[in-house]
Structures are given as C-alpha cells and as structure tokens.
Amino acid sequence: MGLDSRHLHSERLLEAVEGVLEKAGTELQSLSCLAVTTGPGSFTGLRVGLSFWKGLALALQLPLVSVPTLDALARMNAFPQGTLVPLLDARMKEVFGAVYRFQKGCREKIVPDQAASVDFFIEAALSATAPLVFLGDGAQRYASEIRSRAPEALIAEVHCGLPRADAVAAEALDLWLTQTEHNPAYAVPLYHRLSQAEQAKEAAGTKAATPEKHRP
User: Fold this and answer.
1) CATH, residue 103
2) Alpha helices in the chain (DSSP H)
3) pLDDT score for 161
4) Do strands 82-91 and 94-103 pair parallel, antiparallel, or not at all (unpaired)?
5) What is the CA angle 14-20-23, rounded to 5?
6) Domain that holds residue 134
7) Could you tell me the end-to-end alpha-carbon distance of the chain, in angstroms, rounded to an integer?
8) Are residues 118 and 173 in the same domain?
9) What residues contact 54, with CB distance under 8 A and at least 6 apart?
10) Do the domain assignments include residue 204?
11) What is the DSSP letter of 77?
C-alpha cells in the first residue's frame, strides 16, 4: 500500500491503519489486542508511534502489547541453531543491538539491548555458537568491520533486516499469552541512551560541577 511521503508520519499512521484493515477485510472494533514496537530507534519516531498506538488502544479499550524492536527482529531468524546479532544504526559511531543464542529453535538473549560500538557486539558474539548471523541496517553500515573481525559470519540482505509487521505480531502474541500486564498507559519507549540534547546538558552539568584547579 502506497502512502503520500509528503505527509508527516503522525498524519500517515491512521491512513496506513485504515488501509491495512480494509485489505484484511476487518475493522478496528473486531480487534482483540494491539501491539507496538517500543524501541530502540529514532527518538521522534518512537514518541510519535507509541503516542498514536497508546491513544488508539485507550480509545478502543484494548490491551497494548509492548514489543522490543530487537526481539521482533530476532523473531525473523531462519536458523534453529546458532547466534543472531540484530543491529540498528544509532549513528554517532554506535549501534543498538543485542545477542541471541538459538538452540533447537528456542531463543535466549545472552547480551541485553543496549547502545554500543559494533566492535562490542562482534566481540560478544565471537565465542558463541555458529552460525553467526548479523542483520539490520547497522549490520549493513558496518559490514566491513564485521567481515574483518568475523569472516565466517553471515550478514543478512537489506530486506531481511527490516522489522516486519508479522514478526511484531508473532512476538506480541507470545507476550500476550505469557504476560498479564498490557495496560497501554504503562507502555514506554526504550531509548537505551540519552538524546544528543540530554547528553550535552549532562556534559555541561558535569563540567559545572567540577571545581577549578587554582594555582598555588
């Protein structure tokens, strides 16, 4: 379904939802639950997306399942055995990532979601079970670094590393069935680092709190 890219994301969301429902032959009132990815990701994108879905869930009095974006990406892994490292470009020479171990199709997160250098995630995954798979736009951006440090690793194609609605839905279904708290009021974004403005403010505060050295 095409959307007019001249409009802001906040203006396009409702149009997108209506279009998807129409193609699916259903309506909002027929839904039992809503799901939203909570990050990490763009600060503005997370705020806009989460605000929209929280508002919709509250208006329809539906539960809202919060799905970590990296978990949704991990759901797209095609290997029943091995190690998966989803990486999202966080700019400023960092990526958002995590490391997952797969054994007989069961998933275990062995390095939690965080913002760090790509070298950190490569190092964390080097001793893990093969095959070692990297995916996401962060893996694409730092492909040369990954190949130099982990030449046996597989780097998924661009289209394989994009968060998909069906992966989010599958992850949300598991969470809905295994957890009890899905109040939309409690859904919060997972930034995993301060914004640039917050980092600048923190740095300024630290500098101001540091006493000046006086010459004897």
Assistant:
1) 3.30.420.40
2) 9-24, 43-60, 69-74, 118-126, 137-141, 143-149, 165-178, 196-209
3) 86
4) antiparallel
5) 140
6) 77-161
7) 72
8) no
9) 36, 64, 184, 185, 187
10) no
11) -
Cα angle value 6/25/76 (rounded, 5°): 70
Same domain for 151 and 87, yes or no, is: yes
pLDDT in tens, 54-99: 999 999 999 999 999 999 999 999 899 999 999 999 999 999 999 9
Tokens of 179: 């957890």
Partners of 24 in beta bridges = none
Q: Tokens 């209506």 — which residue?
A: 18
Which residue in this structure is represented by tokens 């991990």?
A: 74
Rounded to 5 degrees, what are φ and ψ at 138?
A: -70, -40
Q: In this structure, what DSSP letter does residue 104 have?
A: T
Kindly give, in sequence order, each residue whose CB lies less than 8 Å from that of residue 12, ignoring residues fewer than 6 positions away.
3, 4
CB atoms within 10 A of CB 165: 11
Judge contact between 160 and 74, C-beta under 8 A: no
Percent of the chain topping pLDDT 70: 85
Q: Say if residues 101 and 108 touch (Cβ distance below 8 Å).
A: yes
The dihedral of CA 57, 63, 69, 72: what is its sign?
Answer: negative
Looking at the structure, tell me whether residues 138 and 170 fall in a common domain: no
Residue-wise pLDDT for 114-166, tens only, equals: 999 999 999 999 989 999 999 999 999 999 999 999 999 999 999 888 889 99
Number of structural domains the chain divides into: 2
Residues 60 and 95 in one domain: no
Nearest to 113 by CA among 102, 124, 129: 124
- On the question of pLDDT at 186 being above 80, the answer is yes
